[in-house]
Amino acid sequence: MCQIGISTNRFRERRDFVLQPNMMEDLLLRKYLQMGQGLWRVVRNQQLQQQYSEQCFLQRDGEQGQRMGPPLAEPLQQHRTPQCQVPGADISYLLRVRKGREEQGFIDLEMLPPELSITILSYLNATDLCLASCVWQDLGNDEYLWQGLCKSTWGHCSIYNRRLPSGFSYRKLYLELDEGSLTFNANPQEGISYFMSRGILVDHPKEIAKFIFYTRMLNWKMLRIYLDERRDVLDELVKLHNFSNQFLPNALRDFFRHIHAPERRGEYLETLITKFSHRFCACNPTLVRDAGLSPDAVYVLCYSLILLSIDLTSPHVKNKMSKREFIRNTRRAAQNISEDFVGHLYDNIYLIGHVAA
Question: Which Pfam family, any one, appears in the UniProt record (predicted)?
């Protein structure tokens, strides 16, 4: 049996437990309270500030009314019912309110704006979404919702660009994408094979690179192992980066945010820096011409930035490298680079931090 079938059976085994009303409410309420705590705090603070300002306003107007007489009574009544107190427009009220005690249920997420509903549900994994669909059955059958969840988590899949057959279900696709991601995080080759067997991905380096670039569910350690084995996919992944008008340390941080650097120096790190150097120069022809940069010079600067990052951030290094020392050592290796440019590199690392953190 396929792995997604195993995960579905595992969910069915727990069906009798999760569908008990009280336990189901406590589980989902705890999860949504954790996710929406920041939103509720902001909304509540706004309400308290507005109530406080209204009380001060009414108190001040009441004092004026005592001095000026009864004609101000009618205008005061208009301030006692602000429009923001309408329950239908109060998001915090919608998130906290329950149905009647006899119904033992939650508010339907369809009462919220669609963007907020998708944002809340995007924090859940496949199992939790199945649990939530047992409570909100209308949302569980909403294909537009599942389509938004698929594309917000896995930004690019080959199946998105094909004509979908009749009866296609984005809910089933979401479960397959989640199962494939979990498989990839255990074994990268098996995960990619799973996506291809389901027709989600096409066996082409560019398609695989786009899938990796726009997906936020893949384990970076397993991704590093996979890219070390598939250099053709790595080449296409580097081409997806746009470093135009970016300062060199910031571009290097962006690069290592998608393609994590190895823990130790070796052939793979040298390959990454070489590919980054050529891509950075290709994206910044004006900077290359004006500053006298070349792929070899950028290669040297990248190594200097990595070593400087380790020197300034490591607690084991007592005597930190000074700006003067960094400029002197770097210009020995890259003589065509100006002293001011190298000084700005040092300032960036000193103020922002490690380039490969």
Answer: F-box-like
Which tokens hold the place of 339?
A: 């002293």
- Tell how far CA 103 is from the center of its chain: 36
Residue type at position 104: Q
Which of these, 202, 260, 268, 264, lies nearest to 229 by C-alpha position? Answer: 268
| 14-51 pLDDT tens trace | 344 444 444 554 555 455 545 555 444 544 455 555 55
Task: Report yes or no on whether pTM surpasses 0.90.
Answer: no
Residue 146: per-residue pLDDT: 83
- DSSP secondary structure string, 206-254? HHHHHHHHTBS-S-HHHHHHHHHH-HHHHHHHHHT---TT--HHHHHHH
Q: Which fold has domain 241-356?
A: Arf Nucleotide-binding Site Opener; domain 2 (1.10.1000)
How far does CA 131 lie from the centroid of its chain? 23
- Taking alpha carbons only, the member of 48, 27, 40, 145 closest to residue 97 is 40
Widest CA span in the chain? 87
Model pLDDT, residue 81: 38
For the chain, give every domain's residue range.
241-356
Interaxial angle between packed helices 170-186 and 220-229, expressed in degrees from 0 to 180 and rounded to the nearest 10: 80
Q: How far apart are CA 130 and CA 114, in angstroms?
A: 19
Inter-helix orientation angle 188-197/170-186, to 10°: 160
Confidence check: pLDDT of 208 > 90: yes
104, 25 contact by CB (below 8 A): yes
CA angle in degrees (0–180, nearest 5) for 194-168-126: 55
